[in-house]
Amino acid sequence: MFPTTARGAHGARHAAEHWLATQQGWPEAAATDDDTATVSLLIAELTANAALHGRVRGRNARLALTLTPTTLRIEVTDARGEHLPVRTPEADADGESGRGLLLVASLADAWGCESHHPGGKTVWAECTTRAARTRQENRV
């Protein structure tokens, strides 16, 4: 859980990075420092979006990471189910915002959003691990 503030999102990202660094199998799953940086960037973007667009006074957001042999799944849940992410083909070049989900779409292997009744949503992103990518490459 983290407060839906910029500081809360920042703290959640650092806690997630620390958790990943201590997980058995993660250093091997992330083939390079670029993979780790990609995951960190995805976490930063999703938590920042929750702080910016998912804020409800008195309610926290939740960051969850699930590491399997093939995938790292990042989930950020907030209380604003009426504010679903909009998939836009491109952001305004002069705009100050709107590029975050384009970044998520380009860096993640998959991403999406799930609404929760009676309110709230979970925005998620998945990254394929190195072991899974190696198996896929060997099949080709």
From TrEMBL:
Domain named Histidine kinase/HSP90-like ATPase: residues: 3-125
GO MF annotations, alphabetized: protein serine/threonine kinase activity
InterPro entries given in the database record: Anti-sigma-factor_SerPK, HATPase_C_sf, HATPase_dom
Coiled coil: none
Keywords on record: Kinase, Serine/threonine-protein kinase, Transferase
Gene3D superfamilies: Histidine kinase-like ATPase, C-terminal domain
Protein name per its UniProtKB record: Anti-sigma regulatory factor (Ser/Thr protein kinase)
UniProt organism field: Streptomyces griseoloalbus
Lineage of origin: Bacteria, Bacillati, Actinomycetota, Actinomycetes, Kitasatosporales
